[in-house]
Amino acid sequence: LRPAPGAEPDRAAPRPDRRGTSRGPSRRAPSLARELIQGLLLQPELARSIALPRPDDGTADGAALTALVDFCAAEPGPLDTATVMQHFAQTGHDATLASALASAHDHALAVEQVEAQLREGAARWWQNARRAGAPTPLPEAGLSSEESERLRQLEIVRRGRSARPPPDAET
Q: Chain-centre distance of CA 30, in angstroms?
């Protein structure tokens, strides 16, 4: 509201605080590691048939994924979500896994969708790793000819950089 013409503004009235207002904690997009954790929690036995990453990136999601993959791949008996969650109860990964599981249940995916999502997520992880020059397992499905050519060219560039002498070496 604007004051009436000629009226003095009320200086004693409280002024609204215009400093940065917080809308609560900001949420970041779920990581690919979180997506893999979700799928693996819903179908833990897939760790035995899908080559899953064991990231060493220093993040809570990366550490939880590594521990989850190691446990699920090595456990000899039948696995289900409850068994996995009980194994990780009271560990440093408990909160990360519980949060991922709650989020996964919100999406209510069918069994086939979980497996497809886990396979696609793992394939994306390994594709990103190959592009970065990290060692990876062989892809489950063949790469497209464009992706194969791109990876071949990246490898040529990487070898070319390591084969060149440093600029100071020529003098």
A: 6
